[in-house]
Design brief:
The protein folds into 2 domains: 12-137, Chitobiase/beta-hexosaminidase domain 2-like (Chitobiase, domain 2); 143-510, Glycosidases (TIM Barrel), CATH 3.20.20. Helix content is 33%, strand content 18%. The protein has helices at residues 34-49, 99-112, 157-169, 194-197, 229-241, 257-262, 290-306, 322-326, 328-337, 342-359, 388-395, 405-408, 431-436, 467-474, 477-486, 494-510; strands spanning 12-21, 27-30, 55-56, 66-71, 83-87, 91-96, 129-137, 143-149, 174-178, 180-181, 184-185, 201-202, 223-224, 245-252, 311-315, 363-367, 380-383, 400-402, 452-459. β8, α3 and β9 form a beta-alpha-beta unit. It starts with 11 loop residues before the first strand and ends in an 8-residue tail after the last helix. It binds acetamide (ACM). The site of acetamide has 4 residues, from loops.
Length: 518
Amino acid sequence: MSDVTIVPEPVSLTLGTGSFTLTPDTVILAEGAAREVAAQFCAAIAPATGFAWEVMPAAPDSKRPAITFRLDAARADLGAEGYCLTVTPKQVVALAPEPSGLFYAMQSMRQLLPPAIFRPAFVEGVAWEMPCVHIEDVPRFGWRGAMLDVCRHFMPKAFVLKFIDLLALHKLNVFHWHLTDDQGWRIEIKKYPRLTGVGAWRKESLVGHMRRDVEFKFDGIPHGGFYTQEDVREIVAYARARHITVVPEIEMPGHAQAAVAAYPELGNLEEPVEVRPYWGISENVYNVEENTFAFLQDVLDEVLALFPGEFIHVGGDEVPKVQWETSPVAQTRMRELGLANEEELQSYFIRRMDDFLTARGRRLVGWDEILEGGLAENATVMSWRGTEGGVAAAMSGHDVVMAPTHSTYLDYYQSEAREQEPLAIGGYLPLEKVYAFDPHCEGIDEAHVHHVLGTQGQLWTEYIPTPEHLEYMAFPRLCALAEVAWTPAGRKDYADFLTRLHFHLQRLDGMAVHYHKL
Ligand code: ACM
């Protein structure tokens, strides 16, 4: 297999003989909606080759070698994201029923070329050849994602765009953007300017591991940043052009301290709070007053206008109930609503958001704590505390995304030699363990397995202060996760993956990715 080293491994691949050589005279053919992908291919190929191709509707001379991108309704069997790619010495033909499939064919074509194709400037002396192959390929799961926490450490827009490029390279199609948390609110909301005016900035950050038995040390360095709505539109459009849906996460009712710092009336206490300068779980959750629901719905109105995707993530994880237990307002509210306990109050909170989003044609997704106190009718569950929550949700007819700590938390240590690694949150998640994960977890029967939408890797950034460090934690583990999400379980082979990865890392070198060396 060493001639072809595509990551993630395609469903079916037959190696032919000979190769197709790219030259300045190669013609690029595409019509209609296929033109966009063809133009993306030309743009991807241009820097390293220096070839200035143009996309044409038909060949001026049928003898000239051609690369064709064609939408083909007759191949509807390939589904919304599948493709067929045939490389012969004379031509390359990419077929798909939908543009997404052509986009993935294009990603495979880039990976059939020498890895130097990923270099950002002209590379001399390379024969730009693709081996002759026939590939038929469809993803195993429709939700293939990565979550980026930009709250604990802000990540600049330029990096977010690079991260999206890296998702696209690996045929990942969901960018879950964790935009609000205790340590920072990162999205401009026009109606509530203090969310970013105050909530996007903390006065300092914790140094070293957070341990309750050791006195906290702080760096004394202000930290913050946020994305304007213009930035968000740009990022969403950039992702969309790469067939990636952005799922924004607006956390509630917990992980809300930055919002409460900006607007104290959203909280449960009399005294003000600051944007939290250390990690862990804050007790400063939203109160349950009508004004707070109105605030959150206003926020979601602006969020819905920016993010056209179906799913909106409302967090829902790690909600200490202590302030609700002692708040007369919350206790009165519980009695009025006939709720037995604070878990049911949290469930009431999420149900209201579910109703709000459902009425607007969207779908709520939340971390698996939203199961506690009763799951909202239309909710999708993101199972992080293991897979049990996801299994229970799937078996009760809800869609789930498998994101368990044990196999998908890419903020965990990736080698056993911790002392040789940069500080990480803890845990141990080696490449091989990510690779071995199967989202069709035990306990989900055949009749419910379709509820497993897919999986995603988590990049929480308490201990990841910079883009370079983020890349180090994400890669190559995200390459393994991509294969978990794309490749049929029966075609996965860790030894073969490692062989392909060896070549694949040269592609990441070309893209200047600061990955963890094997
Ligand atoms: C989580 O890690 N709190 C979802």
